[in-house]
Design goal:
The structure is a homodimer.
Chain A: H1 3-12, H2 16-21, H3 25-28, E1 42-46, H4 55-65, E2 69-71, H5 81-88, E3 94-95, H6 111-131, E4 136-138, H7 153-172, E5 177-179, H8 193-203, E6 208-213, H9 214-220, H10 224-231, E7 235-240, H11 259-267, E8 273-276, H12 284-301
Parallel strand pairs in A: 1-2, 1-8, 2-3, 4-5, 5-6, 6-7, 7-8
Chain lengths: ~300, ~300
């Protein structure tokens, strides 16, 4: 990492704390009141979820189940825009979000690896914007990505600057960068929705957003309800899986309870998607259908 | 740090993730429903808050205002137990919590400095138990405390083991260790209530608790409401101050809005204290009285 560049960036964002503490927009005003609302549960699938040998077959299956969103991977997305657009044309399915697909990482010690991340994200963001996606999912550093900058206040301030830059690019393409907290085994750096939201707030860009993934939240959050409320206006996407083995919701039996989180999403009038990212141990057509029914039942039961 | 000791401790708590993710006690069951409850607002003062030349004079002032808690510092607490007990006898004021006062720190590289923390906390916890305090406030590492263990997954696992040990000592004395998240300028390691609660959960000790301080929360949380809900059953104490300059609530004008946080405390049926930790720029008797009135007004306005 270029020391001078680091110091300049640190100085630039040295005021982040003061700025964050000053307008108090989010603190002075009460959060969305927990009154009864009835937003719709919009479900989305990653490309591997539905059974079928082709994307068309998968989309037929999804449409038949009333699934409204598709979450493709970000790898090579630019070259898929016209094909995806054609295949979704005339269907009641939209692109929900784009799952990663970038190279490099934002917290790399090596400036070239950081630039790789910004450059590849920029390309995916452009395609995401064309596809009308809510955003492109980003993880600042997986545990496996090294060498990584040390987890210090200076690194956080530096990350906030990088996120501002990326968020502005996203906003230009009318989409967002969606920070995803993962469990500690995958990404120690960012584990909780509240921390992701805090990074979004500090980055001060309309193009920065965050998400929660019930699978990771099982290990890292003490309250699904509290976590989503902390996501607040930055929360633009949700992932779902079973809570013990990351398979289809319902395949882990009673552990697969999402009601507490759904209560928050309803109270917040969340209008994004809840998107499947998981495997299965059963017959795919059956476990996927059962999972969709389970989530709809729990959504209906959840009292905002 | 003794490498062997570190590895042993890491191995011991290597199962923490699996354990945390497995019983799902906090996830399967819905959080306290956000229905209307009317817990009382119990206010507490640190020793420097009330005007008065003696503790008796301060306690008279507090009693006159209906303040129900006193939060003394932990320094030399053992030698003050009988005096504090005598001075509170016959009054409607109890010891709320004990503010720090320990030496050393838990995340020190040097094992002797870590032991200093455990030993001094043990002494304070014993006195806190005698005084009936909800707990003793602890910060794992202030930014100024060095050399510190690196912020890595291994260090977090090690901290969880230390907190288990300390929590068990606290439970033996019928009190708790209360983890306090601070703002990034004071303590980068632990900044958010959700993270403190997650440490409590992982520590698996009935003697581990956490708190939220509106002052630090102003800078670090995107939602007072979400933060307190994430504290959930671990939340045993709350600090309050004005939100711009850490003076008396109300001295910073409209910025001093606590309603969103109070809504959560009411919905959670929080039965701990809201304790003043702040300075003043005005006439102490006047600003303290105005602050108490403001908090009571906002508590009444807050709809669970």
């Amino acid at each position: 990492m270029d020391r001078k560049d680091f110091l300049v960036k640190t100085a630039v964002c040295g005021a982040a704390w003061a700025v964050a503490a000053s307008p108090l927009k989010l603190f002075g005003a009460p959060a969305p009141a927990a009154k009864a609302k009835s937003p719709e549960l919009k479900l989305s699938f990653q490309e591997g979820i539905a059974p079928g040998d082709s994307l068309e077959a998968k989309l037929d299956f999804m449409e038949n189940l009333g699934i409204q969103g598709l979450e493709p991977g970000g790898g090579g997305l630019a070259s898929r825009v016209s094909d995806l657009t054609a295949k979704l044309s005339g269907r009641n399915i939209k692109i929900s979000a784009i799952c990663a697909g970038f190279s490099g990482f934002l917290l790399a010690e090596d400036a070239a690896v950081r630039k790789q991340c910004i450059d590849s994200m920029t390309e995916i963001l452009a395609a995401a914007g064309e596809l009308g996606a809510a955003g492109v999912i980003l993880v600042p550093a997986f545990n496996s990505q090294k060498p990584v900058l040390p987890h210090t206040p200076e690194t956080r301030a530096f990350l906030v600057e990088e996120l501002h830059e990326l968020g502005e690019i996203a906003a230009k393409y009318h989409t967002t960068v969606i920070l995803e907290p993962l469990n500690r085994r995958e990404a120690h750096y960012l584990r909780q929705v509240a921390d992701a939201a805090s990074l979004c707030r500090d980055a001060q860009s309309a193009g920065m957003a965050c998400m929660g993934d019930f699978w990771h939240m099982t290990a890292e959050e003490t309250s699904d309800y509290g976590a989503f409320f902390s996501g607040g206006p930055y929360l633009k996407h949700v992932h779902v899986a079973s809570r013990r083995n990351r398979i289809m919701p319902g395949e882990d039996g009673e552990a697969d309870n999402y009601i507490d989180g759904f209560r928050a999403l309803k109270a917040m009038n969340y209008d994004g998607y809840v998107s499947f990212e998981c495997g299965t141990r059963g017959n795919r057509a059956e476990t996927v259908t059962a999972a969709v029914n389970l989530l709809r039942k729990q959504w209906a039961e959840a009292k905002a």
